[in-house]
Amino acid sequence: MARIVKKFGGTSVADMDRIRNVARRVKAAVDEGHEVAVVVSAMAGTTDTLVGYTRDASPMHDAREYDTVVAAGEQITSGLLALVLQDMGVPARSWLGWQVPIRTDGVHGAARIEHIDTAEIENRFKQGQVAVVAGFQGLGPDNRITTLGRGGSDTSAVALAAALKADRCDIYTDVDGVYTTDPRIVPRAQKIHRITYEEMLEMASLGAKVLQTRSVEMAMKHRVRVQVRSSFEDTPGTLVVDEDEIVEQQVVSGIAYSKNEAKITLVRVQDKPGTAGFIFTPLADANINVDMIVQDVSEDGKMTDLTFTVPADDLERAVAVIEKHRDDFPFERIIADRDVVKVSVIGVGMRSHAGVAATMFRALAEKGINIKVISTSEIKISVLIDAAYTELAVRALHTAYGLDA
Amino acid sequence: MARIVKKFGGTSVADMDRIRNVARRVKAAVDEGHEVAVVVSAMAGTTDTLVGYTRDASPMHDAREYDTVVAAGEQITSGLLALVLQDMGVPARSWLGWQVPIRTDGVHGAARIEHIDTAEIENRFKQGQVAVVAGFQGLGPDNRITTLGRGGSDTSAVALAAALKADRCDIYTDVDGVYTTDPRIVPRAQKIHRITYEEMLEMASLGAKVLQTRSVEMAMKHRVRVQVRSSFEDTPGTLVVDEDEIVEQQVVSGIAYSKNEAKITLVRVQDKPGTAGFIFTPLADANINVDMIVQDVSEDGKMTDLTFTVPADDLERAVAVIEKHRDDFPFERIIADRDVVKVSVIGVGMRSHAGVAATMFRALAEKGINIKVISTSEIKISVLIDAAYTELAVRALHTAYGLDA
């Protein structure tokens, strides 16, 4: 007997037939003797409709009213799934955020969960009742409904699993797990059976859009074992776990890439202490996230070129911010380049293995791919290259690290 | 400065343009210096969609989950109206049933309001804030959402007006008031400017579907002045008030009719004490409402015919119940007639005027209309006639009581 939290996203509960499919999966777990809490999103499309209404109602909307309107979507699904489960003979009841309650801070529209009172849900477990919890929502300090921001149901599920000390949190989605890279680019990509939180975080933030970054952070913090699996196929998915649960650690677990990158080069800025601060402070103030940064060694000790990346969506805004502050840090000219991609190799194993970077550079060089910027962390190496080489680079690296099936 | 509750039904908030129209009406009242609470229904069609989902989910549905799902409709509208009001510069916030809270009993799907805590709403009035309250919903003793049954938003509005000691409760609907009879039958029907609670109750339950019967009962009990008016035209409507507020009382205020009637005659039942009880007890147990009852004078003192009416929808069920119990009260045969209509003249003035019934019988006789059953109360006289004569009878009576414009 295990205690399991299962989360189903919007496509998994898009209509009554799919809700019945979800109920069958929940029933199977109940029949195996498990205690089950289910977290549901709104039916696919509902949230968009409701968000559209709020925009129409008021462009500068009050986030408290936005939350009131949008949270109705998960409310509907939770009631419906409870009804379908009952109809299948499985005792179940819906729990809205304010009923559990799932207490959050007061940041409406992007609230953070602070505490979940699970006493009553655990009581009901003893009576064999399934808890169907509306995802994405909580109760703010003002006694009003809060929402956790887009994709927040993943976070609801992991937080609930942590509070319930659940044995596992299953996240059902439209893919059947996390792959060593994008299978559309590399058909021989393999499903990863176990991955560490740290690797998953890198995979998530680098564009493998399977799990919300915040939910992975929360899982890591509370050591919640998360399983990513398919809503539609009954195959084992990918288990996201602590490093020590992984017996045979690969050096490199996966190859990720992100197209939402843009490169900015400031040509001939003054090479003196504090320049970087002058440049990056106004960007931070404008809420623009600077990622990779490279400063050339200056030839004369006075002038240098500074290159960095920002999200492609923020490129125009970033250039505008820099132009506005150019008096604070004179430079000759600015080069903006949207035609780049960031490719990363990820693996906790590289901490204890030398030569991982060398393998990467050699593999790319063999294909004639030029590296523009490099950045590294303990468990990943990222390079910025021409976008045209994305597929070529990903395939070459996948082979170079022995990941092909 | 007055304190006013305004209630808008589903067609009045059917889309964003109509919600903006509602907001303009609310703003006008605020600009006049009034304290305003607004009660809203779900957008037209939403409740039907949600009810359809629950039926699909489980034919024998758990009313607690039904309430959770269906209440989402009013939740959405209340948030949207608050947003639109804010956008027009009117301070406003939404209040869900559990937030006010509007405490009800635990009869999910058909709950009764027990107490409304208005302290916080009244605090906000002092700051000039409009309260937008989700209609139709409350909080049950089990900390779950309850709904008041179909049309319950009228009841929400009147109950809120009573709790707030409001000067008036405006019910906005798609007609502009209560008429002396159905204007589709009598084009010369007149709008009634003031009507008593008692008359309105008779009008409502007899088929003039303007106000929910329960809401009128509640208004009468708490002496809430209710105004029925149009959402779309800015004309004065019909004020439902205490009898002493009506200076010049008509003898007859209106002519109502109801087509949802069916007549049952039991031919040759035993004429002895207790027979009626034997017959009507099983019908009451089956939740079938018996209305008009006539027992012929028996010729031989042993056998008599018994005629009564039931709602047309319940006719088949009623006949089945009687057949099942026929051993308890032997009769010769049963005649069921669906082809009847009940026409009523209503007016508190008839208490102090003789000859009202005589006028009715004469007017119908002049048109050759046969009366099958008669029943009377202090303020109404009802007759059952052939359905084919409905329009003729209503028109004749409207003229006979001097109601034509």
Features:
homodimer; 405 residues; alpha/beta; Carbamate kinase; 8-stranded mixed beta sheet; 33% helix; globular
What does this structure look like?
- The structure is a homodimer of 405-residue chains.
- Chain A is an alpha/beta fold and 405 residues long.
- Chain A has a domain at 3-174: 3-Layer(aba) Sandwich (Carbamate kinase).
- Chain A contains 12 helices and 20 strands.
- The first copy, chain A, has helices at 16-31, 46-57, 63-70, 72-87, 119-126, 152-163, 197-205, 213-222, 275-285, 315-324, 356-366, 390-400; strands spanning 3-8, 35-40, 92-95, 102-104, 113-116, 130-134, 137-139, 145-147, 168-173, 194-196, 226-230, 238-241, 254-258, 262-270, 293-295, 303-310, 333-337, 340-346, 373-377, 380-386.
- In chain A, the strands form 5 sheets. In chain A, strands 3-6-2-1-9-11-12-10 form an 8-stranded mixed sheet, with helices on both faces.
- The longest helix of chain A is centred in the first third of the chain and has 16 residues, at 16-31.
- Chain A starts with a strand and ends in a 5-residue tail after the last helix.
- The mean pLDDT of chain A is 92.
- At the A-B interface, helix 2, helix 3 and helix 4 of A face helix 2, helix 3 and helix 4 of B.
Summarize it.
2 copies of one chain form a homodimer. With 405 residues, chain A is an alpha/beta fold. Helices cover 33% and strands 25% of the residues of chain A.
